Write the structure tokens for this entry.
Amino acid sequence: MTSLIRAAVFASGTGSNYEAIMETENLPCDIVLLVCDQPEARVIEKAKRYDTPTFVFDPKTYKNKEAYEQDIAKQLQSERIDWIFLAGYMRIIGPTLLKQYEGKIINIHPSLLPKFPGKDAIGQAMEADVDVTGVTVHYVDEGIDTGPIIAQERVNVLQDDTKETLQQKIQAVEHELYPRVIKKLLGQ
Ligand code: GRF
């Protein structure tokens, strides 16, 4: 039997994308670690349900980003992680992790990048009164949602959409798109 690629998911919040990845059949990798920077995040409960080992840290207890990323890097090395999937991880990845995982970190973002990068992309789209927004999966570089785009999918904004209904539609697309991109990238 060939051994599967080993991947870590980084998340800070609810973890619906983590869950969608875990529910995917024939995923070409094992999710062997969840990294979370919010000790109270709901994704931690979800990781328990799926028996995914977690590395939960509180950034406030570290001197700086380099210090906590070195701790993360140790965990990634001991778990022999090949790929990192960011799924609602609300921190910018620093040089410590970028250097070690060049071209092996991807992110999902709820807009059609380069439109609406950064926080509250759905709120930004509502504010801009656009007819179409969407979802982007991209490689991670040193910027905020600036890395090369891998895949995008459009979501129509209807007249009676609220931020909540738009978020639901976007998340439904995310839960299908992210696993599909992972399968394609990792060779299935
Ligand atoms: C998603 O909308 C993702 O695009 C963004 O953060 C959100 C995370 O949601 N980066 P969840 O924690 O996966 O439910």
Notes: The mean pLDDT is 97. Strands lie at 5-11, 29-36, 54-56, 83-86, 105-109, 132-139, 149-156. The two ends are 16 Å apart (CA to CA).
